[in-house]
């Protein structure tokens, strides 16, 4: 009797938990659904939005495609994200590996410096950063948009904690006994072990760099060098704004992020949970 009651109680708790999670998922997806559906509306009918698709999708699509630099926007965002992910992951992993597995003078100070960079809002350094890019004649290039993703304090801290708790020192010592160099150990042994953390960090850097708006806004004036978030602002007119086409453009710029997340969501979740358990 008691066992059946406990079983019924557990079933009820699980059922209630699933209902709560389903409701949370629905509330999370509503903004995305609204954004995609609003892209089918005329600007003047947006305030009549009823949750159902309208018949203005083709007109908004033509308006978006009329922007001659739209292909450049997508290419620039792709270049920025690809370079940021590849170099950012490599640099953060190498720094994290050094801080986690090597003892040297000043290591604790470097760890504190990494934590300090995470506490300071990056907006405080934007003025100096823009000035530095101008002095180096890097304005109106994609370099200023890429550089912030290469030295992420969060990335270094994340990889330091993950490598420290996940990679056994004995494996590295065995590899050194077998005459393996540090570079070979790093790429052939460390990388496969921490692959969930690498995928997680890569996804986060991709999302941040793809959605970056403020840095390119302050450092790029050439329309042909705009990224997608910056290119969407071209739909803001002096006297009027084509909000329907603008929302459709935002929806299109969101699709790559959603696709990447869907493809690598399992790795992302496993990396986050492994870091949480072991940290």
UniProtKB/TrEMBL annotation:
The chain crosses the membrane at residues 12-36, 78-100, 112-131, 143-164, 185-208, 244-264. The keyword ATP-binding does not apply. Keywords: Cell membrane, Membrane, Transmembrane, Transmembrane helix, Transport. SUPFAM superfamilies: MetI-like. It holds the Pfam family BPD_transp_1. Residues 74-265 form the ABC transmembrane type-1 domain. It is a multi-pass membrane protein. It comes from the Bacteria. It is found in: Cell membrane. One of its GO terms (cellular component) is plasma membrane. InterPro entries: MetI-like (IPR000515), MetI-like_sf (IPR035906). The keyword Lipoprotein does not apply. Its main location: membrane. Belongs to the binding-protein-dependent transport system permease family. This is Carbohydrate ABC transporter permease.
């Amino acid at each position: 009797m008691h066992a059946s009651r406990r079983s019924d109680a557990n079933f009820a708790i699980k059922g209630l938990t699933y209902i709560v999670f389903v409701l949370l998922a629905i509330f999370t997806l509503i903004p995305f659904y609204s954004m995609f559906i609003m892209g089918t509306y005329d600007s003047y009918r947006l305030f009549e939005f009823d949750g159902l698709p309208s018949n203005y999708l083709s007109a908004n699509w033509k308006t978006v495609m009329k922007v001659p630099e739209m292909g450049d926007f997508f290419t620039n965002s792709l270049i920025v994200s690809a370079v940021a992910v590849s170099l950012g992951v490599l640099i953060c992993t190498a720094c994290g590996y050094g801080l986690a597995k090597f003892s040297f003078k000043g290591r604790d100070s470097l760890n504190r410096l990494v934590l300090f960079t995470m506490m300071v809002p990056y907006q405080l350094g934007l003025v100096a950063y823009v000035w530095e890019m101008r002095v180096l004649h890097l304005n109106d290039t994609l370099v200023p948009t890429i550089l912030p993703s290469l030295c992420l304090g969060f990335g270094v801290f994340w990889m330091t904690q993950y490598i420290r708790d996940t990679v056994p020192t004995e494996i590295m010592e065995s590899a050194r006994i077998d005459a393996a160099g540090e570079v070979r150990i790093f790429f052939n042994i460390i990388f496969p072990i921490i692959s969930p953390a690498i995928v997680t960090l890569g996804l986060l850097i991709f999302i941040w760099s793809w959605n970056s708006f403020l840095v390119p806004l302050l450092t790029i004036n050439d329309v042909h060098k705009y990224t997608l978030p910056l290119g969407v602002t071209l739909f803001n007119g002096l006297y009027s704004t084509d909000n329907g086409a603008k929302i459709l453009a935002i929806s299109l710029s969101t699709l790559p992020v959603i696709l990447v997340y869907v493809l690598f969501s399992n790795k992302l979740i496993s990396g986050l949970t492994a870091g949480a358990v072991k940290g």
